[in-house]
Design goal:
By secondary structure, the chain is mostly helical. The chain has one domain. Helices cover about 70% and strands about 0% of the residues. The chain contains 12 helices and no strands.
């Protein structure tokens, strides 16, 4: 993921302390006004993957924005998609992608933007204006682009949280070394600098010390990554499989 592809999270960092399926169960159990905030968090989390999928399907920027609004308004809200989600079918985002594919297939070409758009905006104008910044690797299919956008947004959130924890703990040098040596090359699809170059840049006395700094932040990063992944799966035994799939997504980006 290049620096131009970097996106910021729309949802609150505190929105998903439980798994997504637990949140969906809460939505089912609460009355409509009480569940609105939970549904809104889901919308903010998934609009970028939806938009990215539509763009890769050949929709122009404005058409993709319009269809994104329409999908969440007509299918997710009006047809209560979240309430009808079935965790026995697997991951929620796969369930959502299937519903999106069915929605796109059923949209009439002559349907106007006015008809598809909700009376009140579901997604903020600022959010949708930033949609054009999202770009999956050229070799990705529409479905892969959907998962890539989800993974990229997840990565943005994790990066922000780990960086903040390092700042709070007085380990910003650790973070800078980790970013330069590990994270930056992954996000920018560039070669990593040598440990010697990293030490020289940050005035670190030995490569062993720099290596230990990287290990410290890497452990935090992986722990935070798995904590977030755990929220999107049904059971803990699925965490490693989901984590490995996300790593494959970013590996494919580097290979491309």
């Amino acid at each position: 993921m290049s620096s131009d592809d970097h996106t910021s999270m729309g949802a609150s960092r505190e929105a998903f302390h439980t798994t997504e399926w637990s949140v969906i169960e809460l939505i089912r159990d609460q009355d409509k006004p009480s569940s609105a905030a939970l549904i809104n968090d889901l919308l903010k989390k998934y609009w970028k993957p939806v938009y990215c999928y539509l763009r890769r399907k050949g929709q122009k920027n404005e058409q993709a924005k319009d269809l994104t609004q329409g999908f969440f308004h007509e299918i997710v809200l009006n047809r209560h998609l979240v309430e009808h989600a079935d965790k026995s079918r697997g991951r929620f985002r796969t369930f959502l992608l299937t519903a999106l594919q069915q929605y796109v297939a059923g949209v009439h070409r002559k349907q106007t933007a006015q008809k598809r758009s909700p009376k009140g905006e579901l997604l903020g104008i600022d959010d949708l204006e930033s949609a054009g910044q999202i770009e999956a690797p050229a070799q990705f299919s529409p479905e892969e682009s959907f998962h890539y956008a989800w993974a990229a947004q997840l990565l943005d959130c994790i990066v922000a949280e780990v960086r903040e924890k390092c700042r709070t703990d007085g380990k910003m040098l650790h973070w800078q070394v980790f970013h330069d040596r590990v994270l930056g090359p992954i996000m920018d699809n560039t070669a990593a600098p040598s440990l010697e170059e990293t030490c020289q840049k940050h005035a670190i006395e030995s490569t062993a010390k720099a290596s230990n700094m990287i290990i410290t932040v890497n452990r935090r990063f992986q722990a935070e990554f798995k904590r977030h992944v755990r929220r999107s799966v049904i059971q803990d035994s699925d965490v490693d499989a989901e984590f490995n799939e996300l790593m494959q997504i970013f590996s494919r980006n580097r290979a491309g």
